[in-house]
Amino acid sequence: MKKDSINNMKRILSEFFQIALGILLASIGLKMFLLPNGFLDGGATGIAILISELFDYDISYILIIVSIPFLILAWFSLSKRIFIKSVISIISLAFIIHFENFNSITEDKLLIAIFGGLFLGAGIGLTIRNGAVLDGSEILGIFINNRLGISIGKVILMFNAILFGATALFLSLEVAMYSILTFIVTAKVIDLMIEGFEDYVGLMIVSEKTTTINNELIKSLGTGTTLYQGSGGYGKRGVQTKKDIIHTVINRIDIRRTYNLIEVIDKNAFIIEFDVNNIKGGIYTKLLSKESLKKLSSSKNKINTKTKDTYESI
């Protein structure tokens, strides 16, 4: 138990260190590139920059105020742990922006758009990969996706289309065009950092502790699972006997948490990870939503008492 506590503490410290690094990268993108030149990014950050440019207010205060409605949505859409980490991340970003004194290093508008988007995207992607949200548009996407079924990507696209339209109207068409370029770079870098914000990944898990791992996946992640019976085979430990194999689909943002969960139970578990292009039917967690966990919590006791044959028929 003591060793598990130490490993858990190391994991938490690693997550917060990477989130802190992500916040620093995002602040560099804003203070060294975008803010000195009036360029926007998408999402809540873009709204804050636009208001700051129009009314000459301090961007750090506006960022917190603009983020409040999105954080309220986060309270109803995300787990409490993700909500708390997101609040801390957004406040920390505003704090660093307010006090850091980075100077603009170039006046080339193309370089500003590209490198501003690169640093900002790397920062946002790193925080998302470690279970925090740094920009409110992702939270809005999750909220609408949970209730209306519209994809997160489409929600963010529509949100930013309105934002960049307002930028062209109130600032200039040129600023709007460069801001769109910044947004595209940011989005691509985020994809590189977390390999797809809305993507799902499939896992096949072979272990001597299948039942324990299966129950923890259902309890902790709220994901659906299917158990297959392996008739035998040959592996690292020689000839394999009959055993159950777990097949499940999770969101990529949960991948680190899933591996940590499995490692605590069985360090020798054999895991195959593969991309999932589309899902229809079944039970799977929609980006840390509370709703899937609530749906499964009432039936948890029934799930734990199901026989192997019942699992095979799911």
By DSSP (H or I, 4+ residues per run), the number of helices equals: 13
What distance separates the N and C termini?
34 Å
Low-confidence stretches: 285-290, 299-314
Q: What proportion of the residues is helical, as a percent range?
A: 55-70%
Succession of helices and strands: HHHHHHHHEHEEEEHEHHH
Mean pLDDT across every amino acid position: 80
Structural class: alpha+beta
Reported for the largest beta sheet, the result is: 4 strands, antiparallel
Return Rg in Å: 22 Å
Strand order of the largest sheet: 2-5-1-6
Indicate the proportion of strand residues: 5-15%
Count every beta strand, where a strand is a DSSP E run of 2 or more residues. 6
How many domains, as an integer?
Answer: 2
Categorize the overall geometry: elongated
Protein architecture, described:
The protein is an alpha+beta fold and 314 residues long. It has 2 domains: 2-194, no CATH class; 200-313, Alpha-Beta Plaits (2-Layer Sandwich), CATH 3.30.70.120. It is built from 13 helices and 6 strands. It has helices at 2-37, 43-55, 59-77, 80-99, 109-129, 136-148, 152-170, 173-194, 210-221, 255-265, 290-297, 300-304, 308-313, and strands at residues 200-206, 225-230, 233-235, 238-240, 243-251, 270-276. The strands form 2 sheets. It has a 4-stranded antiparallel sheet. A hairpin with a 2-residue loop joins strand 3 and strand 4. Helix 3 (59-77) packs antiparallel against helix 4 (80-99). Mean pLDDT is 80; it is low at 285-290 and 299-314.
Could you list some keywords that capture this structure?
single chain, 314 residues, alpha+beta, Alpha-Beta Plaits, four-stranded antiparallel beta sheet, two-stranded antiparallel ribbon, 6 strands
